[in-house]
């Protein structure tokens, strides 16, 4: 979730991206690279893919949308839309802003809490008769700096550091959210496609934005989603969005095909973030057609995972009336 451009994995650059098939267009304030099917091929599906923080389109072109994959997509009637975030600082584009020092302290406190929980529990029991009713119970969730603090003997967290990390909404997300929803509406209108014919995906920060967007599109549900090196965030808000949707919408969401991948040595977005996101989608949202791929590597998208996303998308494009169960069965066949 909290990635920085200088942390991009240093892998060989793929230079085979064919810019001749790409058009640069402005859509509701976003500079977008758009790859359209040929005039003889009807557009049956759109893929909107959000980049990570840093240089727009860099990872997408090198790891996912290579010339060979683009040719397969457009031949299948898929329009690929790669928006660049309008938020930027000194050439670095980003979707939201995070305090890396605060995040590190939260995770450190979570680790310390885990290591001392038994010791604190033992002290609490031994001093149970010495603790006044006012002193016992939970402590304030945060310090003056806004971070949770470790409890004293006989006290416990009102909100654990780990829960604070998962529930936190980074700065500027409230700015990005309405712009992204407006972008999806513009894609639907310009291509004449309903939300159910749109695949949402993203890498790193873009994965979190895509997930946030998908939940805020409810009661509309996209065709499929693909998240790479993304982390759980905004958990309370996402819970609320899902709970407020009608029963039929929640049932439809649970059938949504989801492909997720994360490197086990990702130092920009720790692999635990991806695991938390997978658990949230499976256990709390009840998603029934999802695949989580944890690969050997860092902050990247390996070719095998990119091919899975390609196959899922092409299948959806070639079978516009296919059920989500069919799409998911195709996805699992590639495992």
Describe the protein's architecture and organization.
- This protein is an alpha/beta fold and 335 residues long.
- The chain folds into two domains: 5-96 and 170-333, 3-Layer(aba) Sandwich (Rossmann fold), CATH 3.40.50; 100-167, no CATH class.
- The protein contains eleven helices and twelve strands.
- Strands 1-2-4-3-9-10-11-12 form an eight-stranded mixed β-sheet, with helices on both faces. It has a two-stranded antiparallel ribbon with strand order 5-6.
- Helix 10 (303-318) packs antiparallel against helix 11 (324-333).
- The longest helix is centred in the middle third of the chain and has 27 residues, at 100-126.
- The protein is globular.
| Name given to the CATH architecture of the largest domain | 3-Layer(aba) Sandwich
pLDDT averaged over residues? 80
Structural class: alpha/beta
Strand order, biggest sheet? 1-2-4-3-9-10-11-12
CATH superfamily of the largest domain: Alpha/Beta hydrolase fold, catalytic domain
End-to-end C-alpha gap: 26 Å
**Global shape:** globular
Number of strand segments: 12
Tell me the number of helical segments per DSSP (H or I, 4 or more residues long).
11
Beta-sheet strand percentage?
A: 15-25%
**Rg calculated over all Cα atoms:** 22 Å
What order do the helices and strands follow?
A: EEEHHEEEHEEHHEHEHHEHEHH
What name is given to the CATH topology of the largest domain? Rossmann fold
Low-pLDDT runs: 1-15, 117-157
> What is the CATH level 1 assignment of the largest domain?
Alpha Beta
Fraction of helical residues: 40-55%
Please summarize the sheet with the most strands.
8 strands, mixed
Counting structural domains, the number is 2
Protein name: Phospholipase/carboxylesterase/thioesterase domain-containing protein
Keywords: Hydrolase
Family: Belongs to the AB hydrolase superfamily. AB hydrolase 2 family.
Organism: Polarella glacialis (Dinoflagellate)
């Amino acid at each position: 979730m909290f990635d920085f451009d200088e942390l991009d994995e240093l892998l060989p650059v793929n230079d085979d991206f064919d810019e001749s098939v790409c058009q640069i267009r402005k859509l509701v304030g976003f500079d977008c690279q758009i790859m359209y099917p040929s005039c003889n091929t009807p557009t049956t599906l759109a893929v909107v893919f959000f980049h990570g923080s840093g240089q727009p389109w860099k990872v997408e072109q090198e790891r996912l949308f290579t010339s060979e994959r683009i040719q397969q997509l457009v031949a299948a009637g898929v329009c690929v839309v790669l928006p660049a975030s309008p938020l930027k600082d000194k050439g670095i584009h980003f979707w939201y802003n995070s305090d890396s020092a605060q995040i590190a302290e939260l995770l450190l406190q979570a680790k310390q809490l885990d290591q001392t929980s038994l010791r604190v529990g033992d002290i609490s029991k031994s001093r149970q008769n010495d603790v006044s009713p006012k002193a016992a119970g939970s402590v304030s969730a945060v310090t003056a700096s806004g971070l949770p603090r470790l409890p004293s003997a006989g006290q416990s967290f009102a909100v654990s550091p780990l829960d604070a990390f998962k529930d936190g909404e980074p700065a500027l997300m409230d700015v990005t959210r309405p712009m992204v929803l407006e972008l999806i509406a513009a894609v639907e209108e310009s291509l004449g496609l309903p939300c159910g014919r749109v695949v949402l995906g993203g890498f790193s920060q873009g994965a979190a934005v895509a997930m946030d967007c998908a939940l805020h599109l409810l009661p509309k549900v996209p065709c499929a989603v693909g998240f790479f090196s993304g982390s759980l965030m905004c958990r309370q808000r996402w819970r609320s969005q899902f709970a407020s949707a009608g029963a039929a919408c929640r049932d439809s969401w649970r059938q949504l095909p989801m492909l997720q991948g994360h490197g086990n040595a990702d130092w920009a977005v720790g692999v635990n973030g991806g695991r938390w996101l997978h658990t949230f989608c499976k256990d709390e949202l009840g998603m029934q057609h999802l695949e989580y791929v944890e690969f050997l590597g860092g902050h990247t998208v390996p070719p095998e995972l990119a091919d899975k996303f390609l196959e899922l998308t092409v299948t959806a494009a070639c079978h516009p009336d296919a059920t989500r169960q069919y799409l998911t069965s195709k996805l699992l066949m590639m495992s």
